[in-house]
Amino acid sequence: MINVLAEKIKKLNAPIVVGLDPMLGYVPEHIQKKSFAEFGETLEGAADAIWQFNKEIVDNVYDLIPAVKPQIAMYEQFGIEGLKAYQKTIEYCKSKGLVVIGDVKRGDIGSTSAAYATGHLGKVKVGSKEYSLFDEDFATVNPYLGSDGVKPFIDVCKQEKKGIFILVKTSNPSSGEFQDRIIDGRPLYEWVGEKVAEWGLDHMGDSYSYVGAVVGATYPEMGKILRKVMPKSFILVPGYGAQGGKAKDLAPYFNEDGLGAIVNSSRGIIAAYKQEKYARFGAENFGEASRAAVIDMIEDIASIF
Predict the structure, then answer these.
(1) pTM of the model
(2) Exposure letters 112-143 (e unless 16+ CB within 10 A, then b)
(3) Is residue 114 within 8 Å of residue 154, measured between CB atoms?
(4) How far is Cα 163 from Cα 153, in angstroms, rounded to an integer?
């Protein structure tokens, strides 16, 4: 799947991923009203509203982008109904030819980690049958428990030709409380980056590993170091736009071939209609506002090369 992602990025000249992280506050009133009229002000109504919201955005941007990244917490907050909307969103995105990165940040040990990997990337056996569940193409993984937590994911990825993005240096302000700690003369994120590179050598695509890394756009100097530490790993870069990351800061995340990184924007795209720049579209045309924001993002990132 890493080969597919790289090819899509090259074909579209768009190393970006749209984060489908729907909060009800992002969903225009006319969408909410329609869902609540059918299902009431219930969890089912909320889940339908975010599903309809996602669908409209995907319909407007799928031809411009290689991938989407739904953040599972935004769906889990609505319980089982929300998870149904998460699954429906994944299925719809894949029907449109998009690569799906499940932002699930899972990580445990042994059989527990294997169960997470099976649920999101693999197949579960029920008697003589096998079922794919959420069936994302990639998943984000927390490495805090070490190899015991990561290798079950890699095992499933090998079976299914899928991939993972491991949290290395995250974009949030307090990430340094742990990730920047100096261990034997180097920050912890460098040690994690080395392990990502090591794990990745065991599961390679044509040019890049199926084992990637998450490195925030808000820390470009650290991104520059980690690009060298993980030359064969794709870097998923959150933090662009709404969190303060600028296009000019992204160059260190890419390799000389123009690949090696994919930049995420979530509310900067899906809630674009709320921004002054795209207010002309209005809430009724929020999908068109998202399309305009994607086009602007593509042009912005292209300016760094």
Answers:
(1) 0.95
(2) ebbebbbbbbbbeeeeeeeeeebbbbbbbbbb
(3) no
(4) 8
Q: Say if strands 67-68 and 99-106 run parallel, antiparallel, or are unpaired.
A: parallel
Query: In a structure prediction context, what are the per-residue pLDDT tens digits for the chain, which is 305 residues long?
Result: 899 999 999 999 999 999 999 999 999 999 999 999 999 999 999 999 999 999 999 999 999 999 999 999 999 999 999 999 999 999 999 999 999 999 999 999 889 999 999 999 999 999 999 999 999 999 999 999 999 999 999 999 999 999 999 999 998 889 999 999 999 999 999 999 999 999 999 899 999 999 999 999 888 889 999 999 999 999 999 988 765 567 788 989 999 888 999 999 999 999 999 999 999 999 999 999 999 999 999 999 998 87
List the end-to-end C-alpha distance of the chain, in Å, as a whole number.
25
| Total domain count, the chain | 1
Q: Pick the closest to residue 234 from 263, 275, 268 (CA basis).
A: 263
Q: What is the CATH number of the domain that holds 257?
A: 3.20.20.70
Helix, strand or coil, per DSSP, at residue 157: helix
CA R_g for the chain? 19
Question: Are 281 and 36 in contact, with CB atoms under 8 Å apart?
Answer: no
Catalytic residue among 55, 105, 123, 151: 105
CA distances from residue 20 to 95, 119, 190 in whole angstroms, order as listed: 16, 20, 29
Closest by CA to 56, choosing from 84, 25, 17, 30, is 30
Helix (H) or strand (E) holding 131: strand 129-132
For 27, the domain range is 2-302
| Known catalytic membership, residue 125 | no
Dihedral over Cα of 28, 138, 215, 181: its sign: positive
* 143 backbone dihedrals φ, ψ, rounded to 5°: -90, 10
